[in-house]
């Protein structure tokens, strides 16, 4: 029995070794094919993991890897925080910047090595607080060169909305954007575009490889910003025509949402009551308009962002021959029209023609001032006076000044007036009494200083708008920047100044 078993054992062992060698060969072959499919250098390769050196052929497989291996569920984070395209764009750049420093994107812990970071990564928590750290304009700039993930993570959303008729009309109406694949001058049907670009984006020069917009006769504008300067921030050397067209479609969708959200916020009457109730501000406009008869009498006046039409009513009352009130919010344009009618200042075009006794002077045009030429017939440089209440927090916050400058360049007569014609930013230092720190130090006899410290930390990263009493100021105020609206250039709103 023993002598018979030995050959069987050796034969069995030999068979096992042969099978093992075959399995290794199969694994090597599979590995070779895997390497070929992901590293071939084709158009579908090159999606680098956010946390490690792994590369993938699609966004879906990359994000699934991040979910399983690095506790990062991109789609869940995006859904919970309701991130749009640009919010997702910032998040990706923020994570890459943190990983480059071996820092946890969630809790901020800095590790000794990337491997230590891999071991440390954990499920996301307090996402809304975490967002404060990365929801900044600097993360609109690609952190990694040629990061395909930045213009590919939203392709599924684009596909879902390709049949949206309104979106496609926007894309099809784009003008004079050339998409060049490097071998042909032919234009795609979706290559020509004019759209509303996102406001509040840091000015960035268009990168090489992006669709050429330098010769566009139209501007891609959101709240007055020229997107030909800004869209470069969302393109890291686009390498193929399909990717470029996808980005343009995606931009059309998201920038449309941005403008709808911005102008929709002004459909609420509360914000208009707040502005009109600011007696110092409104009385200043009223006096400047009503107490300048030599300027206003018989003048053609354009009110940019008229809201309820209060400034237009002042202009009509001051003796203007015609007042063009421009308002992007559809609801507020209708409200301004009704107010003009109720006060006998509305200009009814059909009834006014041939009726010299018509007292109407005020015409409300719904739309952005950059698109005014599409909404009405108006000759270039035919307006005597521009009026606008364009100022936001820290003067420039709403990014509306560029719309005023656009109207100045397009419609204002040489030597025409702008009200206001100058604007100045001041800065002053304040003490802890101007903060909420004292409040948190004694809350019904309990110390909650930890909350105050967190508030201070957040304030270092994001702007806080608040009212500070003059007795809390601890320095003199100094001029930060002065603008002459009659002569300034559009790019002067982007400045650096030390005090």
Automatic annotation (TrEMBL):
This is C2H2-type domain-containing protein. It catalyses: L-arginyl-[protein] + S-adenosyl-L-methionine = N(omega)-methyl-L-arginyl-[protein] + S-adenosyl-L-homocysteine + H(+); L-arginyl-[protein] + 2 S-adenosyl-L-methionine = N(omega),N(omega)-dimethyl-L-arginyl-[protein] + 2 S-adenosyl-L-homocysteine + 2 H(+). Residues 19-36 have a biased composition (Acidic residues). GO terms for cellular component: cytoplasm; nucleus. Transmembrane segments: none annotated. Residues 49-70 form the C2H2-type domain. Residues 7-18 have a biased composition (Basic and acidic residues). Pfam families: Methyltransf_25 (PF13649), PRMT_C (PF22528), zf-C2H2_2 (PF12756). One of its GO terms (molecular function) is transcription cis-regulatory region binding. InterPro entries: Arg_MeTrfase, Methyltransf_25, PRMT_dom, SAM-dependent_MTases_sf, ZN622/Rei1/Reh1_Znf-C2H2, Znf_C2H2_sf, Znf_C2H2_type. It comes from the Eukaryota. GO terms for biological process: methylation; regulation of ribosome biogenesis. CDD domains: AdoMet_MTases. Keywords: Methyltransferase, S-adenosyl-L-methionine, Transferase.
């Amino acid at each position: 029995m023993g002598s018979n078993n030995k050959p069987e054992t050796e034969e069995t062992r030999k068979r096992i070794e042969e099978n093992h060698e075959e399995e290794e060969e199969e694994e090597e072959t599979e590995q070779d094919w895997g390497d070929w499919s992901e590293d071939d250098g084709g158009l579908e390769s090159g999606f680098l993991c956010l946390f490690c050196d792994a590369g993938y052929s699609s966004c879906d497989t990359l994000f699934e890897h991040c979910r399983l291996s690095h506790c990062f569920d991109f789609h869940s984070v995006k859904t919970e925080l309701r991130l749009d395209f640009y919010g997702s764009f910032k998040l990706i750049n923020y994570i890459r910047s943190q990983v480059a420093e071996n820092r946890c994107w969630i809790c901020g812990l800095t590790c000794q090595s990337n491997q230590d970071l891999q071991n440390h990564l954990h499920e996301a928590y307090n996402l809304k607080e975490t967002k404060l750290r990365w929801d900044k304009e600097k993360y609109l700039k690609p952190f990694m060169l040629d990061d395909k993930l930045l213009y590919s993570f939203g392709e599924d959303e684009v596909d879902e909305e390709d049949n949206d008729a309104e979106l496609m009309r926007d894309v099809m109406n784009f003008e004079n954007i050339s998409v060049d694949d490097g071998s042909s001058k032919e234009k795609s049907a979706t290559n020509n575009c004019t759209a509303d670009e996102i406001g509040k984006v840091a000015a960035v020069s268009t990168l090489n490889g992006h669709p050429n917009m330098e010769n566009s006769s139209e501007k891609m504008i959101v709240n007055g910003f020229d997107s030909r300067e800004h869209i470069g921030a969302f393109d890291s050397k686009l390498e193929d025509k399909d990717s470029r067209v996808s980005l343009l479609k995606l931009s059309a969708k998201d920038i449309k949402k941005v403008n709808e959200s911005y102008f929709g916020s002004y459909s609420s009457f509360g914000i208009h009551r707040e502005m009109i109730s600011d007696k110092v501000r409104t009385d200043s406009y009223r006096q400047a308009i009503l107490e300048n008869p030599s300027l206003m009498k018989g003048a053609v006046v354009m009110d940019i962002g008229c809201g309820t039409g209060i400034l237009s009513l002042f202009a009509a009352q001051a003796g203007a021959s015609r007042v063009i009130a421009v308002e992007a919010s559809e609801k507020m344009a209708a409200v301004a029209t009704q107010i003009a009618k109720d006060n006998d200042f509305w200009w009814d075009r059909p009834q006014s023609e041939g009726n010299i006794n018509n007292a109407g002077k005020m015409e409300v045009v719904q739309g952005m001032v950059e698109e005014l030429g599409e909404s009405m017939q108006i000759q270039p440089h035919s307006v005597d006076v521009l009026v606008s209440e364009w100022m936001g927090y820290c003067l420039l916050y709403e990014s509306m000044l560029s719309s005023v400058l656009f109207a100045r360049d397009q419609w204002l007569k040489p030597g025409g007036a702008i009200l206001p014609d100058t604007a100045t930013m001041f800065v002053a230092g304040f003490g802890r009494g101007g903060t909420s720190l004292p409040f948190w130090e004694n809350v019904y006899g309990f110390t909650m200083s930890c909350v105050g410290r967190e508030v201070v930390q957040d304030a270092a990263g994001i702007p806080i708008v608040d009212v500070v009493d003059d007795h809390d100021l601890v320095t003199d105020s100094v001029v930060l920047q002065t603008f002459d609206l009659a002569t300034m250039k559009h790019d002067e709103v982007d400045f650096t100044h030390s005090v």
